Amino acid sequence: MRKKNKKMAMWILFVCVLFLGMYKIQAFAKFKQKSEYQISEELKGKEVKQLTFDEKKKIGEYFITAQLSVFEIQDKEEIKKIGMEIFSEDHIESGYGQLIRNYYPNRFHTLEYKFSNEEICEESDESFTYCAIAYVSGIENGKRDEMSLNYEMKIVKEKHTFKIAEQRQYVE
Question: Measured on CA atoms in the order 49, 50, 53, 56, is the torsion positive or negative?
Answer without folding.
Answer: negative
